[in-house]
Amino acid sequence: MRIVAERDRCIGAGNCVMTAPEVFDQDDDGLVAPLVDEADPVDPASLAAARRAVERCPATALRAVED
Amino acid sequence: MTEVSEIPLHMRRAQFDPISELGEIRDGAGVCPVVTPFGVPAHLVSRYDDVREVLSDSARFSTADRRALTPPDATELTEQEYARARVGNLLSYDPPEHTRLRRMLTPEFTMRRMRALEPRIVEIVDAALDDVERAGKPADLVSTFALPVPSLVICELLGVPYADRADFQRRTVDQLDASHPPQRRLALQQASRAYMATLVARARRDPGEDILGLLVREHGEDISAEELVGIASLLLLAGHETTANMLGLGTLALLRHPDQLARVRDDPASVEPAVEELLRWLSIVHTGIPRTATTEVTIAGSTIAAGEHVVLALPGANRDPALVDDPDRLDITREPTGHVAFGHGLHHCLGAPLARLELRIAYPALLRRFPGLALAVPYEQIAFRPYSVIHGLQALPVTW
Ligand code: HEM
Ligand code: HEM
User: Fold this and answer.
1) Is A11 in contact with B338 (Cβ distance < 8 A)?
2) I want to staple B88 with a disulfide (CB 3.0 to 4.6 A). Which of B80, B154, B162, B231 is the partner?
3) Strands (E), chain A
C-alpha cells in the first residue's frame, strides 16, 4: 500500500500525525508531510495505523493506494 | 427557553448519556425534524456515517448561511452588523474565506508547537492543583480546577500579560454564565472584545511569541485588527468551556468507574486511549453549528431541500453501534475510534491537538495528586448542566 496526500485539502488537524507517527509528519505550516514517499510502499509494521489515519482524516486529504 | 420540554431533543441528556429517544431515531428513521435553540426548524441527522457525510461536504452543506442562526420572525441584523459579528469566526465561513483564515492558524496548532507548549501546561496544571490542595477539602473541582486550567492556557496562547490574568479569568467565567440576562451577556461580550482589542493593538506595536504576535509578524496588514479580535474571541469561546467541561465531566465519569480511574492514574500508557474514549462517550459538544443545504440532498432516505437546515447529533454518531461495539459502555481500553467529538471535515476542531494535550496532562496529574479523590456529596446530588451549548457540570464537590 502507498499513501497519497493531497496537501491542498489538508486542514492541519494533526490526526494522522497522532494516529500514525511513523508515516506522517507536519511541516511548519501545519500541513501533512508524509514520511514515506508516495511512490514507496508503507512499512508492513505501520500498515494498520496508516489505514486508520487515512480513514479518519477529517479533510479526506489522504488516500491509500493498493497496487 | 428554560422549559425542559423546549430543549431540543439532541441537546437533552440523561446525566452522561444522550436521551434514549436519540438512539431510537438513529436506529430507526435516522433523521427527524427539530427546532434549534435559535428557533430555526432543521433536520436532525443522527447516524455516524450520515454525520460524517454532512460534515465532510462543505459544498453541499454550508456554514455561511445566516438564516441557519436567525429565527424566521427575528429582527434582521443588517448585512454590516452581521459581517461585524462574524468577522474572524472560522466556523461561519465556507471556502475560500474559511481556507484563508484556517491556513493562517494551523501553524499555531501543530503537534510540534504543542510539544513546545507542554511544559507550560504542566506548570499551569500543577499550580492549579497546589491551589486546590492549599484551599483544602471539600473543593469544587469545576471552579478551582476545570475552569482555571483552560483559561490560563488560552492566556498563554493569546499572550495575556500576567498582571491581567486574574481579571481575564473573572471576565471569562462571567461571560460564559448562561444565567445572565441577554443585555448583560451582550455587555460582557463587548467588554471581552474590547480587552481583546487591547491585546491586538499591543501585538501590532510589539509582536510577541504568542498567536497574535505570530499572526501579525507572518501576515502583517493582510489580516485586519477586527479579524484578529474575532479570532482571539473565537479561541476563547471555543477553547475554554469545551476543555473545562471535559475536565469536570470526565473526572466524574472516572469516579463512577473506579477501576478505569485507577488505570488512568497508574498506567501512563492508558492515558491517550482513555482521553479518546472519554471524548467519544461524553460527546460534550451536542452539535456543531447548523449547516444549510445548498442543493437538494437525500440523507438516510429523507429529502432535504436546498435552503433547509441540518443539525448533527454528535453524541448520536459517537454512540452508534456502527462505530463501536457496545457503544453506551465507557471502556478506556478500547482501541481509539474515529469519533466525531471534534467534528469532521473542514471545520474539524482547530484546537484538537491542544485540547488533547491539556486533557492528557490534567487527568493523571489530578488523580496522582489526590489518590483518594472521591465525591463529597452523594452522586444523586451532582448537578449536570440542564441546557447549554456544551454538556457539563455546574459543580463537582470532591474530597480526598
Ligand atoms: C459560527 C459560529 C458560532 C456562532 C454563530 C455561535 C453563536 C453563539 C451564541 C449566539 C451564543 C450565545 C447563546 C446564548 O446567549 O445563550 C453562543 C454561546 C456559546 N457557544 Fe457558540 N457560536 C459559534 C461557534 C461556537 C464554537 C465553535 C463553539 C465551541 C466548540 C462554541 C461554544 C459556545 C459556548 C461554550 C457558548 C456558551 C454556552 C452557554 O452559555 O452555555 N460556539 N454561541
Ligand atoms: C475537548 C475540547 C474541545 C472539543 C470537544 C471541541 C469540539 C469542537 C467541535 C465539535 C468543532 C466543530 C464544530 C462544527 O463543525 O460545527 C470545533 C471547532 C473548533 N474548535 Fe474546538 N473543541 C475543543 C477544544 C478547542 C480548543 C482548546 C480550541 C482552541 C484553543 C478550539 C478551537 C476551535 C475552533 C477555532 C473551531 C472552528 C474550526 C473551523 O471552523 O475551522 N477547540 N471544536
Assistant:
1) no
2) B231
3) 2-5, 24-26, 32-34, 62-65
